[in-house]
């Protein structure tokens, strides 16, 4: 990479620097990069071997934070049973096909779709092998 004093991560002196920024919980965290594609492949292998046909990993935040992002892999035919929405939530479909069902209404999501999760009990069904990024911001 060419050192550019106006480009984040460089100093203009040939030295690379680590960027820091606020992060929920520690306020002085390091900037990080994660390959969701690579992690989705890993989780799909685990989901295939799991009796429930699913596997998940929190990639940002957690229960002690307001924001939590969880990558989930679901094999075709598996589902997340009905549960409450703990706050505002979205499901971004990275690949595959899923169906979100709430109050007898359903929405189908495919690669690249973003589903807004309603404030109601709901289920998520995998119509094909799928990887989704669940983002939840807990309500106060």
Attribute tags:
140 residues; mainly beta; Jelly Rolls; 2 domains; five-stranded antiparallel beta sheet; four-stranded antiparallel beta sheet; 1 helix; 11 strands; globular; disordered N terminus
According to CATH, the fold-level topology of the largest domain is: Jelly Rolls
Largest sheet: 5 strands, antiparallel
- Give the C-level CATH assignment of the largest domain: Mainly Beta
Intertermini distance: 43 Å
Tally of contiguous helical segments = 1
Low-confidence stretches: 1-28
Helix content: 10-25%
Question: What series of H and E elements makes up the topology?
Answer: EEHEEEEEEEEE
Structural class: mainly beta
Strand content: over 45%
Question: Which second-level CATH architecture of the largest domain applies?
Answer: Sandwich
Strand order of the largest sheet: 3-4-11-6-9
Report the average pLDDT across residues. Answer: 82
Shape: globular
Give an overview of the whole structure:
It is a single chain. By secondary structure, this protein is mainly beta. The chain is built from one helix and eleven strands. It has two domains: 33 residues, no CATH class; 103 residues, Jelly Rolls (Sandwich). It is 10% helix and 46% strand. The chain has a five-stranded antiparallel β-sheet. Strands 5-10-7-8 form a four-stranded antiparallel β-sheet, with no helix packed on it. A hairpin with a 5-residue loop joins β3 and β4. The chain is globular.
